[in-house]
Amino acid sequence: MTASENPSSSRSEGRLAGRIAVVTGASRGIGRAVAKRFALEGAHVVAVARTQAALEELDDEVQAAGAQPLMLVAEDLTDYDKLDHMGAALYQRFGRLDVLVGNAGYLGRLGPLGHMPPDMFQQVMDINLTANWRLIRSLDPLLRQSEAGRAIFVTSGVGHEARAYWGAYAISKAALEMMVGVYAAELLKTNVKVNLINPGRTRTTMRREAYPGENPETLPLPDSHADAFVRLASAECQDHGALIDLPALETGGG
Length: 254
What we know:
alpha/beta; Rossmann fold; 8 helices; single chain
């Protein structure tokens, strides 16, 4: 981890002022947009991604916009021992965690289920499912120390409908939704609120890989979803165990 200022020195204004937030997959796409918006809303953001240079670019943007520096964690989420160490380090530094955003994901190869290489199937599961369980395992005690702990996990429409050729990705998101539902049920009598977000069609690298012939100009930017994450991360939000389908909210339909 590269350290930054104490959270007490963060912006006094903003909907997330003083809150400590971990965001995974923070170097690009939705994770990047969320990490930046959280910082601009006054949160002390722990930005997690594999690429140090991309995290540093984000940190430069955040500081140029007047927010406090990010805490950068350049780690692979499948290095599970490092996730345990991150939880211990956050406990030593802050004694709590207010927000966890489990955003990082891996598409893998689309095609017939039986044609996927076993190592790729396992990698999709490791990143989309097991890494989020390891984050829960490591950070749940810290979320419980918050007066208003919030956990947000990013899913997909293919996680709650069987769609041909989406293979391991769809299976991993369906399993993620069940895991988060179980976690939410276990936290009913605590101050922690846990929810899922389905961002839907968004202009990201993963979307381009899944739909190479699609015109990206027809898709909303990741920044357009940041308000929904801020709402779920706020201490005032009382949603719990919900799946927030952003496409339905934005269009007024299903």
